[in-house]
Amino acid sequence: MQDPTLGYTRTAIALHWIIFVTVLCGWALGQYMTGLPFSPQKLRYVSWHKWIGVSTFIFTVLRLAWRAYRPAPQLPSTMSPLQRRAAIAIHVLLYVLVIVVPISGWVFSSALGVPTVYLGLLQLPDLLHKDKAIAEALRQVHATLNWALLVLVCGHAAFALKHHFVDRDGILARMIPILQPRIR
Amino acid sequence: MIRLLLALLSSATLYPHAVFAQAIDYARSQITVLSRQMNVPVEAPFKKFTAQVTFDANKPEASSARVEIELNSFDIGDAETNDNVKDKNWFDTKTYPIARFASSAIRSLGGGRFEVRGPLMLKGKTMDVAAPFSVKASGADRIFEGAFPIRRLQFNVGDGVWRDTSVVADEVQIKFSLYQVASKPAAAK
Predict the structure, then answer these.
(1) Residue extents of the structural domains in chain B
(2) pTM of the entire structure?
(3) Closest approach of chain A CAs to the CA of B167, in angstroms?
(4) Pick from A94, A124, B8, B36: CA 20 to 30 A from residue A102's CA?
(5) CB contact under 8 A, B77 and A135
């Protein structure tokens, strides 16, 4: 068993990267498919996009449950109180968005009158009735939240790289075990 | 004049109990299409149609129904999809603006349920369909409610790239609920 103050468990690392991949694929596919003309391929991509979103949600719930069971390691003591607060804020917001973005897509789809059927097998209940005006509003909410998510993910990655190359405090290697921690 | 008399006579023999069909209240009636795309059910209405129903539960065999649907009025709730559905691959509404159903036989299925059979003409193809339906009373008014499946590819609806049934399934349900107001002359919408 790993010392919780030193690093993340393998499960936590796996869930982090699985969620990264689902968010990346879901984001890129969502961006690509909305520009496509009406076609079978577009409908297929929309279904896949929704499956990816539901998967992101499920993996995030698992990850939060795991995090409650095995708390995350502490931030390095070299960080100033302001840096700590900023890091915590970004992490909290990232968790909020990976939960809220899929939900916003789900209710958007409900308002369009198109249910979400996970993997083509499990139909989720529609939280809203079909309503054009609400659907349009939710489309914008879903898109805006996704841009916010992109900004946060980029910020999160940029700060992780700063910790690795500038601060050399070894915390990037906690999430990428094959990386040699660059510690002065 | 003779033609008119003949027409009146023939309608009198066709509908001995009610020469005029009773009026359908279109605000309380609907005809919808339930399709499945990658197992996602999507239901959408035809906003414009006309229906004439002459129905006697005691004499279903003497009853009849005719329905005409304006295919242009299909509304899936999204402008781009609506435009595409009017296109050649789907309804091709420029060439085939109307879908028609006329009953050839109505029979009782027992337990207050009935079945109407007849040819459905859609996009230049005619196929016999059979729809079970129920009749509910609402005061003196009546509601005819039923559904039947069609295979869209038999009518070439969703042609070309859309023939791929792994995205949009071949089987499509047509659902109807016709609200008939008691004893008023028929009036088209």
Answers:
(1) 18-185
(2) 0.84
(3) 6
(4) B36
(5) yes
CB contact under 8 A, B42 and A114: yes
Tell me if A94 is assigned to some domain: yes
From first CA to last CA, the distance across chain A in angstroms is 27
Q: How far is A113 from chain B (nearest CA, A)?
A: 7
- Helix (H/G/I), strand (E/B), else coil: A80: coil
- In order of A32, A62, A66, A173, B103, the CA distances from A69 in angstroms are 38, 11, 5, 22, 66
Instruction: Flag if B77 and A113 touch (Cβ within 8 Å).
Output: yes
How confident is residue B77, by pLDDT bands cut at 50, 70 and 90?
confident
How far is it, in rounded angstroms, from Cα A83 to Cα A78?
10
pLDDT the model gives residue A181: 60
**CATH class of the domain comprising B18-185:** mainly beta
Evaluate whether residue A66 is within a structural domain: yes
Of B43, B76, B164, the CB nearest to A40: B164
Q: Would you give the DSSP letter of residue B152?
A: G
pLDDT of residue B170: 97
CB contact under 8 A, A113 and B168: no
Number of domains in chain A: 1
pLDDT band at A182 (very low <50, low <70, confident <90, very high): low
ipTM of predicted assembly, 2 dp: 0.80
Domain assignment present for residue A4? The answer is: no
Which chain A residues are within 8 Å of B162, Cβ to Cβ? 40
From chain B, pick out residues whose CB is under 8 angstroms from the CB of A121. 39
pLDDT in tens, A42-79: 999 999 999 999 999 999 999 999 999 999 998 888 99
Report the distance separating Cα A8 and Cα A70, nearest Å: 8
